[in-house]
Amino acid sequence: MPEVGISEVNMPNAFATGRNPKNAAVVATRPLLNLLSDDELEGVLAHELSHIKNRDILVMSAAAAMASMISFVTRMAVWGSLFNSRDNGAGLLIAIIADLTLPLAAMLVQLGISRNREYLADESGARLTGKPMNLASALVRLETGCSSRSNDYSNASNASMWITNPFGKKSTSIFTSLFRTHPSTEERIERLKMLDEELNGVRHIY
């Protein structure tokens, strides 16, 4: 059973950590514990336990390592072409284009994987409890809480590890959604509604 911890970070949120189920922990912030009902908390914890079961921490670590490796290789290619006296310039141009585009593509793939793993954890956690709408309700309250002015969280590099965007609700377009670490809360809730219909026969108005 994963260990459970409480964080004093001043925002309502939660995350899971650990490379495998035997070395894992689920952490909830104190504001989350003060904000959510027991049913909503159950939904959040089931989501985080699903991250552990699905080995999402390992998956995301591998994706980050791959993105870093691509950036390193393309940068070395640029330097190699720059100092190759026999290069007629075409190789350098290709290397520069690759240096500008491949790391960006790798980052977009990494962010896409992050969003998909959130969807998967939502579904797995909701199936575990059998109550998808408890998680949906929690996501709305957590997003509202993270959008509060009292939220002073500033570590963007760790944003993807939380159950919801630690910087709160952001306006999105099709373009900016490609750079999000999390799916929009609205999209997650729509999927949870469909799952609720499947599991419990509850019809939702869309």
Write a structural description.
- This protein has helices spanning 30-35, 38-53, 56-82, 90-129, 132-146, 174-177, 185-200; strands at residues 3-7, 14-17, 25-29.
- Helices cover 60% and strands 7% of the residues.
- The longest helix is centred in the middle third of the chain and has 40 residues, at 90-129.
- It has a 3-stranded mixed beta sheet.
- The protein has one domain (3-147, 168-202).
- It has 7 helices and 3 strands; from the N terminus they run βββααααααα.
- The two termini are 38 Å apart.
- The mean pLDDT is 87.
- The radius of gyration is 20 Å and the shape is elongated.
- A hairpin with a 7-residue loop joins strand 2 and strand 3 (25-29).
- It has 206 residues and is mainly alpha-helical.
Topology:
Blueprint lengths: L2 E5 L6 E4 L7 E5 H6 L2 H16 L2 H27 L7 H40 L2 H15 L27 H4 L7 H16 L6
Parallel strand pairs: 1-3
Antiparallel strand pairs: 2-3
Describe what is shown at a glance.
With 206 residues, this protein is mainly α.
Question: Which terms would index this structure?
Answer:
7% strand, 3 strands, 206 residues, mainly alpha
- Strand percent estimate: 5-15%
Helix fraction bin = 55-70%
Based on the structure, what is the oligomeric state of the protein chains?
A: single chain
Broad shape? elongated
Helix count, per DSSP? 7
Query: How many structurally independent domains?
Result: 1
The low-pLDDT segments are none
